[in-house]
Design goal:
Radius of gyration: 17 Å
Strand content: under 5%
Structural class: mainly alpha
Shape: elongated
């Protein structure tokens, strides 16, 4: 939600952006990769990132990105 469109190539969200999208042999692969990418990100919560930060930095409270 914060990063905008997560499609890895433009034709996934906008097939009309490429005149070859209807015949492109790699478009289905990019669509599957994009789907898996979104699924992984959907499973990550802010609390998970905070926990990972604490594991790496020993519980410090530096939340800079």
């Amino acid at each position: 939600a914060l990063e905008g469109d997560l499609a890895l190539v433009e034709c996934i969200e906008a097939p009309d952006s490429c005149r070859r999208s209807s015949e492109c042999v790699t478009r289905a692969v990019w669509a599957e990769i994009t789907s898996q990418f979104r699924e992984i990100l959907a499973g990550v919560r802010l609390a998970d990132l905070v926990a990972r930060h604490r594991e790496v930095h020993g519980g410090g409270s530096d939340y800079s990105i």
